[in-house]
Amino acid sequence: MNKIFDPLPDGNCGFCCIARALGYKVEGWFQVSGRGHREAGAYTKLQGGEEQMKTILQNLKVKSKKATCIGVDEF
């Protein structure tokens, strides 16, 4: 291991980690979020069908680049 990345616990930290691993810049988490959201439709059957997938996608959708801090108890 040659680098350690400790993202802010802002609700987008998972996207930040993936973006960093892929070599994106600081705002790359927003691209990762959008692309994941677009590609997730291919896995509808695996996730339990249309309604379940709709719920998953609604919960993953990020509307803006402004981070909203959440507490650890919400994870």
UniProtKB/TrEMBL annotation:
Q: Which top-rank group of organisms is this from?
A: Eukaryota
Report what the protein is called: OTU domain-containing protein
| UniProt source species | Puccinia striiformis
The organism's lineage is: Eukaryota, Fungi, Dikarya, Basidiomycota, Pucciniomycotina
